[in-house]
Design a protein that fits this description.
This protein is mostly helical. The protein is built from 5 helices and no strands.
Length: 156
């Protein structure tokens, strides 16, 4: 990442936090849900990835190559979810870096690329909160190291 793109690096750090959370979720907990019904932990990670793809499809379909929707009800394991999240994060990072270096805009999003990154980071943080709540409700809370690690952006 070039020093000229702190916006893209900010996105990348936030995206790595989501993948870091996934790594801290026990495999047995992927099918838990906040209320015992609705989206599971696995579905929430899939949703994070799939929303990234929605934005890529709308703004930069050329960056969609090799990316596929996971969808609700998937049986994707940790490795598949992590690979999908890493790939979609990289595509968004490229889109943001190029927008920042260009006219500062992401097609289809107002007002500008900085607000777009804020929007995506907020969206993902919301779902990370749902995931951590689901794990607590299911009696499988995150390890304290992982919980605190979500806030260690300087090392993610």
């Amino acid at each position: 990442m070039s020093a000229a793109s702190p916006l893209a690096e900010t996105w990348a750090i936030g995206a790595r936090v989501s993948t870091y959370l996934l790594a801290g979720v026990p495999a047995a907990a992927l099918d838990g849900s906040p209320s015992g019904k609705g989206r599971t932990v696995r579905d929430l990670f899939a949703h994070i990835h799939d929303v990234r793809l929605l934005w890529l499809k709308a703004a930069r379909p050329d960056l969609m190559e090799g990316l596929a929707k996971i969808g609700s009800g998937s049986t994707a394991d940790h490795a598949a979810l992590a690979a999908a999240l890493d790939a979609s994060a990289a595509a968004i990072e490229r889109m943001v870096a190029e927008a920042a270096a260009g006219d500062g805009r992401v097609k289809g999003f107002k007002p500008h690329a900085t607000a777009f990154v804020g929007y995506l980071l907020s969206h993902e943080a919301h779902h990370r909160g749902q995931i951590t709540q689901a794990l607590r409700i299911a009696g499988m809370p995150l390890d304290k190291k992982v919980s605190f690690g979500l806030w260690e952006w300087g090392v993610r």
